[in-house]
Amino acid sequence: MPITRVSNYTEVKAGIYLPLICKHWPPIPYDPLLNAIDNADGDSNYTVYWTEQPSRLADAYVLQEATDAAFTTGVRDVCTTAQQYCVVSGRLAGTYYYRVRGHNTWGDSAWSNVQWATALLPDTPTLYAIDNADGDSNYVVSWSLSARASSYTLQEGTGPAFSNPTTVYVGSSTSWSANGKVAGTYYYRVLASGGTGQSNWSATQSAMVLLPGTPYLNPIDNTDGDGNYNVTWNAAARATSYTLEEDTDPGFGSPTVLYTGAGLSWSAANQRNGTYYYRVKAAGPTGQSGWSNVQSVNVPARVSILNNHTTYRSGSYRYVVGEVYNNTPSHLRFVKITVNFFNGSQLVATDYTYTYLDNVHPYEKACFEIILDEPVAWDHYTFEAPTYWTNGSARPNLVVTTHSGGVYSSYYRIIGQIRNDETVTIRFVSAVVTLYDAAGRVVGCDYAYVSSTDLTPGQVSSFEIYAMPPNPSAVTSYVLQTDGMR
Question: CATH topology for 303-379?
């Protein structure tokens, strides 16, 4: 038998063996193998992969999703793709089942095996304890980051049941600042939101906001018995301002508000005789405190020399100027002021004068000026208690209609006019001026008669006073009073 060579196959004498080739027919796709799905973080986005073995015949693949393994509920086609994977996104929390099959012009493969993926809700955030130890109106509410969360919702309630809550924050931050809260207890809870849904509400935390503390009103020192004293109180927690009330009734039936502000004191000046009661309360962003304890002070009826007196030397003379205050309900006449100069305990000079006003009205001030030879070697001076008559009368109704004052050479000059508003003629009509410096001290006291001396009813006459304070430029204000005889 002849030997025949067929292609590259081995020669054989008995015959020729040809290769046997088996084809998949018709050439529909093989059944795909669906890989296990990696969604360890439980979020709403993941990728499903598969392969077709032993070779790829499919032109496209269809990935199908269901909410049960038997694919009877929630069935939908997720994607049709030429790739051997599909990106799944936006899944809400739950377990999802997947299968895939291939397709070409000859037909479809069978469905692959089933794999599943679980999308989890965002973790419930931990709401931290709220630090508001000072009880004020400002504090911070904070919470932990949650897996799968993109935003947080914080609610506030006035009770732990959150029966009518207020949403105070929605956003991606993990804290919120409370500001301007009024007194009360506030409850908070937070939940997380993300692509898979919302978490449960967190545990509840609360913050207590307190009213301002009640201030303590200090005892009032008025041992000298005059009408000038200070009312003081202690600072109160959470307070930004205080309200001080005064009344002559210890029950505060008709109080007067004397002060509202951030200060801790108020000064009484030339208070009339009587007993006065005081109380104070605090206010702040959280509300108002209760009233403080009550303190009282007694101002006896008396005539006193105010402590704004001054002394100066001019040439060979010593001047002492000041004011007396008639803190009595009586009209006083001929108020006499006596001054004593000492060197140590040794009296070295004494002198006296009367107020320029012959009659001093109840609760009125009147200036005086004492002029004496310059004492030798003195180091301090004191006043004796003023003396006076109590049979005074009201001064005539004389009105200063116009006036002005200013430095004039070495004087402080005051010029003006006085009108007689009485129905009778007033004799010896005069204007009395008290000069003050910026600190409220008396630096001059003087007087002058009007040009006409006597004024008939309705008559107007001018006056001109040339006062000689030690430094006319230091005068910042003055007070004019009128006097005359009926």
Answer: Immunoglobulin-like (2.60.40)
